[in-house]
Amino acid sequence: MSNLLTTIRGKLQKRKTADQQLEERGEEFYRAGQWQLVWWKFRRHKLAQVAMAYLITMYLIAIFADFVAPHDPHYRYKTYIASPPTRIYIRDLDGRLRAPFVYQMVLTRDPVTMRPVYKANALQTYPVKLFVHDHPYKLWGLFESDIHLFGTGAGAQPIFLMGTDSLGRDVLSRIFHGARISLSVGLIGIAISFVLGLTLGGVAGYFGGVIDEAIQRVIEVLTSLPTIPLWMSLAAALPQDWPQLRIYFFTTIILSIIGWTGLARVVRGKLLSLREEDFVMAARLDGESEWRIITRYMLPSFASYIIVSLTLSLPGMILGETSLSFLGIGLNPPTISWGVMLQDAQNIMAVAQLPWVLWPVAFVVATVLMFNFMGDGLRDAADPYAR
Q1: pLDDT per residue over 298-322, tens digit each?
Q2: Alpha-carbon span 138 to 192, nearest angstrom
Q3: Quick one: which H or E segment has residue 90?
Q4: Inter-residue contact 268 to 196 (CB < 8 Å)
Q5: How is 222-259 classified by DSSP, letter by letter?
Q6: Where are the beta strands (DSSP E) in 110-257?
Q7: Does the predicted TM-score (pTM) go above 0.70?
């Protein structure tokens, strides 16, 4: 009998503890702010979390590209021109497990086509190590160092995980350095577009009247301007003695000033439908300022659309840079970006002989997809009507 009573008391105590935990979670949920609730819902979207992890990793690689890249992106290995991706081994010729290593590559020539052919010399091996000393660099142009995340070390057989291009430059190192421009060039343009789109669209939708008419006429003029001819004319109008990166940033800024029109029209339509709602009238009667009503009450009511538009605009900028640089309108060598790297892929014969020069395409596609996946997760998390 005593054992039965003890068991009952234990179950009651566990149930009481569980009820207390549920009550505490309920109170925590009640006290949580809007963005904390968004984060809780976002954590349940597994694909969006994977996308966020990938994008964070890529941006960290872009920031620390000098350290992460195994080689200097501009250095030409004359004895390894058009070298295929290096194969890493973990078993020797006797089948024994070893730490990762590479064989020495010996250059030969095809007797018919005279193309370079690389064969492994099994008698000479080089271990692949972390934090090796190789070519010197300046991290962010400030800190001198020669330590790289991985490699075989100075004077050893260089490792090319994604091969080399037709000039003997490491493709992986160029992808890591090119990510700095391809991932960051749209941030300034997106920031300008969103500030203009939200501000002017909010003013037009909230106040209406003459202000709305003037802003709509400006939008109609800007949307009538063709984008590609505008890029070409800007490339010809900007000073030719400017560095390539400065020219592209100025062109991006000018286009971002034009690219705010779509967001402004959507924001205007949303605010026109919201300005007569009860919560807006209550805020006016409470003495809230017009700016506070727009930014504190009206814009957050359709934050899910704003978030999705932001996450979709960033990959649009990446695709724009890649496409224009591929066509030769945007950046050009020696500036490194994913679009500039793909200029080598314009020749079908070069792609047939060096298919690994298409690796930047994989990074562009993966980055755009991850932005879209993360945007879907943020939209679902910020949607007030979602369960």
Answers
A1: 777 777 677 777 777 777 778 777 7
A2: 31
A3: strand 89-91
A4: no
A5: HHTS-HHHHHHHHHHHS-TTS-HHHHHHHHHHHHHHHT
A6: 116-127, 129-139, 143-151
A7: yes
